[in-house]
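Cont'd.
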Amino acid sequence: MNSMFNRVRMGQTLDDTLIIDSHCHMGFYYQFNAPNNTAEGMLESMDAIGINMAFVAAHASIGPDYIYGNNMIIDAVTKYPDRFIGYITLNPHYPKDMLNEIERCLKVPGMRGIKLHPECHQVPIDYKNYHIAYEFANEMRFPVLIHTWGIGDIRIIGKLAEKYPEIRFIAGHSGGDVRAMEETINVVNSNVNVYADLTVSMVREGNVEWFVSQVGSRKLLYGSDMPFFDPRAAFGRVALARLSDDEKKDILGLNIKRILENR
Amino acid sequence: MLEFFDSSCFFGRRSVVNPGSYWTVEELVENMNHFGIKKALVYHSIAKEYNPCIGNRMLMEDISKYPCLYPMWVVMPHHTGEFPEPDELLKQLRQNNVKAVKIFPSIKDHFYSISNWVCGELFSMLEKSGIPLFVGLDQLTWNEIYELCTGFPKLNIVLTDLNYRADRNLYPLLQKFDNLCIETYGYKQHHGIEEICKKFGAGRFIFGSGTPVSSLASAITMINFARISDEEKRMIAYGNLEKLLGGVKYE
């Protein structure tokens, strides 16, 4: 069989490889045009490159209205249970409703993780109200995807990982800038329950290979931010990376599958 | 397999080299071979980060043994004597078979205005000669791009280093100005390539990767897996740039 590199370079979809996009959104974004941002529009993008499933949090809920956004995700995972997995997104400015919202969303089987966006909600990652969510996730062994940007965010993830050892922390964007990525490598290597997600707008040359050389392939997750971006750019830098096919398969889908299976 | 002509590559030592990246011309050519990139327009990072004349000279020396590499000079206005006047520049471009130029006018780079009183003579020469001007969205404001397109309606302008937040300003520009094309690598908009092809035609895209800073693999995959026709993919990946450079007449 042809290598993954050859097949992707030829423009062939990888229909025999599990691909789960671990960091997606859904819906409009107020700052720019995001065409075809519905579940159906995203499915078109997923089918074009062979993404089996997408782990999604609504743009609306990382912004102003977590209930409107979570409902959008509930609709998507209910309508397309084989294609979408949902993050429950929480807003720390509504602390009294946080547990209610988690319980409400958990009635839907496809809601399997928590998403926090401290930058949009303008609080630190270890903000006092977030601990309601962390305590819940620790008890349930839930994955928590947190938007991170900068060394400071990553260092906090390291501390939280020690305090909440049952949470699978996913450092969204791996800290974003390169110096923060270096710190991400330290934190991922020091904590079994911290993963780095490769979602980032600036798809740097050689970045995926560098990450694998520093942490191995089992702690890295493919994510695209779709429909913030098209998923092709993030997919291409993994699928065409100078790595073995087994390493690529870990990143593209097997690692997030293992997290969801609590392994 | 889709063939690519990359309009956006450079090499040479630079101030910042991210881990995993590279900087030599040998590594650039090896990377192109690995991914099956047939040809590339390249500039030298010294021309951006130190001095255009010196960098352009280093470029010509370093690419001389690589027929797959085509020179893109970094240019700037001449008034201080740091750079040749437009007539002299045109001679040098012709002598060296340079068919594309790039500018870095922003405050963080070469720091000059692109208004007529500074760049008018340079842009007029490029317009008459059919030499395309590559300039990044990180270098100009949207209003400056508008003024550039308005002031030089026959100048072929390739807007590079786009981002996913561009559409609300980009669409009206593409609608108004036929002389404006966009380079692909930064344009990661969801369904963005498909939408631009539908609304303005595949002829408005020029393939560029941004390597060695940005991922060549990502740039290729954006086109390889686009939901557009094979003919549109060929135009974007190769044909549009070939056609653009074919229009250079050095007059």
